[in-house]
Amino acid sequence: MAKLNVQQIVNGVEAKFLKEDIPPVRIGDNIKVGVKIIEGSKERVQFYEGTVIAKKNSSINTTITVRKTFQGIGIERIFLIHSPKIDSIEILRSSKVRRSKLYYLRNLKGKASRLKQTFK
């Protein structure tokens, strides 16, 4: 019997929990994330819409940081993509960016923080 190394065992266990219905999310995309929220005995989906400014890790640990501006205040939220709490991810539009992290958007106000849209 061939010995399996530890990484192969971990990858085998993680493979069961990976979601296949997730679109390829890139930095600069404007996305709409459906998050499952439990209120009492009821469960509903709340949508969070914003720009992806960072993407970290790989495989089952992939996280994205989504930034939106609400009433002039920037709000960032980090989502674990393969989490059971994430119901859906929809890409609304893509932007042309030349950085892997868009942290500079934190310092820009209003129209200065717009990104150049790309069409597919």
Automatic annotation (TrEMBL):
- Can you name one GO molecular function term for this protein? structural constituent of ribosome
SUPFAM superfamilies, per the entry: Translation proteins SH3-like domain
Look up keyword Ribonucleoprotein and say if it applies.
Answer: yes
Its keywords, alphabetically, are: Chloroplast, Plastid, Ribonucleoprotein, Ribosomal protein
Tell me one GO biological process term: translation
**Pfam families linked to this entry:** Ribosomal_L19 (PF01245)
InterPro entries in the cross-refs: Ribosomal_bL19, Ribosomal_bL19_CS, Ribosomal_bL19_sf, Translation_prot_SH3-like_sf
Which Gene Ontology terms of cellular component type are present? chloroplast; mitochondrial large ribosomal subunit
User: In terms of domain of life, where is this protein from?
Assistant: Eukaryota
Cellular location(s): Plastid, Chloroplast
- Does the UniProt entry include the keyword Lipoprotein? no
- Major localization class: plastid
Report the sequence similarity comment from the record. Belongs to the bacterial ribosomal protein bL19 family.
PANTHER family found in the cross-reference section:
LARGE RIBOSOMAL SUBUNIT PROTEIN BL19M, RIBOSOMAL PROTEIN L19
- Note the NCBIfam families from the entry: rplS_bact
State the name under which the record lists this protein.
Answer: Large ribosomal subunit protein bL19c
Q: Which organism is it from?
A: Pseudo-nitzschia multiseries
Instruction: Name the encoding gene, please.
Output: rpl19
